[in-house]
Amino acid sequence: MHTRDLERWQHPHSFLGHAHRRNERRTLAVAALTGVTMVVEIAAGTYFGSMALLADGWHMGTHLGALSITALAYLAARRQRDSRAYTFGTGKFGDLAGFASAVILAVVSLLIGFESVTRLVRPVPIAFDSAIAVAFLGLMVNLVSALLLREQHADKDGGAAALAHQGAHHDHNLRSAFLHVAADALTSVCALVALMAGREFGWNWLDPAMGVAGALVIAVWSYGLLRDSSRVLLDRAADPEVADHIRTDVEAGGTDRVADLHVWRLGPGHFAAILTVVTHEARTPDHYKALLSHHRELSHVTVEVQSCG
Question: Rounded CA gap, 133 and 137, in Å?
């Protein structure tokens, strides 16, 4: 067989998200902004002797670490996308990074919760004016970062709708970075409300109470990201509605039945499907692939055809 004839049946296994490069650049920009803010806060805190500035600076360092994981995952996935070492490409690198970042986010929520409960039991003096300035600075930085990391979904059409509602285009790597800056913004908002109330009304207890509330919200966000990214990493089957649409398309003629079907996610915007069709009429796999061609997210389809006489 000639090489050109063989190439007709071959295809690439690059299953990266449609905005992979753009998301990589945005993550790097946010990481740089976070790094600069961290250095400025630590330097200023050391020079002016402000514990609030030092604490927030090192807190920024934890988010810089998580953002670095996100950026490295984008870089590695892009550089290794054509490597034959990965059977179905590198589309899940982002899900792995998202899972790791979710674990970091969970640890951050535990630390915030522990420190807040400790301060409820043993209150400490608060330098309100300095703390308010730090919280405001952190809020501004994180709002800018959140705008840069906001995920935008392209409109889907026709047959793609069944898979789009399943979150086929959701980038868990970008989502993890967004949740880190959103968590930091949330703690800044809680801190500002509590600090202003404490300064005006003497409610020092409100600061650690807000910390507990913020820790609970961050824990919920972390759980959602852990759940969704782990489902992809473990090749959990797609939503039953997705499989129903595929069965309906294949069995519409009345002579074919789907005996076995597996649908799972390969990366943002990419699904794979393996199906066994039992039929009374001899048809090629290409016939069934054509029936499913309007499902744009089905990037890798394997069809086995069995005759039942």
Answer: 6
